[in-house]
Specification:
By secondary structure, this protein is mainly α. It has one domain. It is about 95% helix and about 0% strand. The protein contains two helices and no strands. The N and C termini lie far apart (about 65 Å). Keywords: Membrane, Transmembrane, Transmembrane helix.
C-alpha cells in the first residue's frame, strides 16, 4: 500500500514537473516569436550582431 502511494506520488510529481516545463518552453517560444514579429529593428540589430561576430571570426 505504501509503495503504491509512493509510486503514484512520484508519477504525479514528475508528470506535473514535465507539464510545467513544457508550458514554460511553449510560453517562452511564443514570447520570442512575438518579439521577433513585432520588433523589426530588434531583429535587424540581432542579425547585424551575428554578422559582426562572423566577420570578426573571419578576420581572426
Amino acid at each position: 500500500m505504501v509503495a503504491f502511494f509512493l509510486v503514484a506520488f512520484f508519477f504525479t510529481a514528475f508528470f506535473f514537473a514535465g507539464f510545467l516545463l513544457a508550458a514554460f518552453f511553449l510560453v517562452a517560444f511564443f514570447f520570442a516569436a512575438f518579439f521577433f514579429a513585432i520588433l523589426p529593428p530588434w531583429k535587424m540589430w540581432l542579425l547585424s550582431l551575428v554578422n559582426c561576430t562572423e566577420s570578426l571570426q573571419g578576420v581572426g
